[in-house]
Amino acid sequence: MKRLLILLVFIGCVNNPNITNNTKTVNSNNLPVGAPGSPAVPIGVKAVSGNFQNTITWTNQTDATSFHVYFNTLGNVNFSNSTKYTANTNSFTHTGLTNGTVYYYVVTALNAAGESTESVQVQAMAGLIDRHNGSIYVSSLNQTWEKCSENYYNAATDSCNPPSIPTHMYCATDTAGICDNGIFLTSGDTWSVCKNMTIAGRSTWRVPTIAELQAVYAVSNANPGLFGMFQDYHWATNAPVFYQVSMWDGTVKSPIWRTQTAYVECVSDGI
Questions:
Q1: What is the pLDDT of residues 76-110, one digit of tens each?
Q2: Of the options 3.40.50.10490, 2.60.40.10, 2.40.50.140, 3.30.70.240, the CATH number for the domain spanning 29-125
């Protein structure tokens, strides 16, 4: 009886369609995944937002003849819960998207031996246009925002300096003696910082409202690495009162905190 049971178990394993040389199989193309000789997992995967589109790029690899890009709008992308596209180079532009929607992607590499396992997941919200001049247009809000917290944009590298180079924090008011014991920056108060500046050819900048700053916080979270807002308190105003909004979680401090300094992220209406 023991010999018969062992034989039945062995036959069941041999005939199990889900076991293929210790690899799993993608039902859509029946290629073994991770089989000997299949390509390495793509690395350096990035997703960059555009108007009604996202562009996904990754490091090219000589052991692959083509690539698959899998996406969905829910996250945790895998072979079974996503839509697949094929790319013959290390770049794919996903068009016809809905601005304001976040799309999630993984990439695999293919050759005659099989398909690699999935890359790390990346994401991008369609409808964000980085103008590479210190400003980003957010189509879902119909607003142009500073790419970095005010005074931290580095035009030479088109990126944001870290907060220690140097420290640019602002008072909500320029009335002497009520902001950090009367210590003020020569660049002026928060309202004037936005009102008087010209960035990217625009001079219509202003301090955002609480709702606007919370909205762009959500956009920034959905697009890691695009914005350079520090994860610290930034000024917002529901005129005439100034508030501080956290870029950690979008929460709002009590108006009493207007007697302290915070960062500024200015906004301008329209494209």
A1: 999 999 999 999 999 999 999 999 999 999 999 99
A2: 2.60.40.10
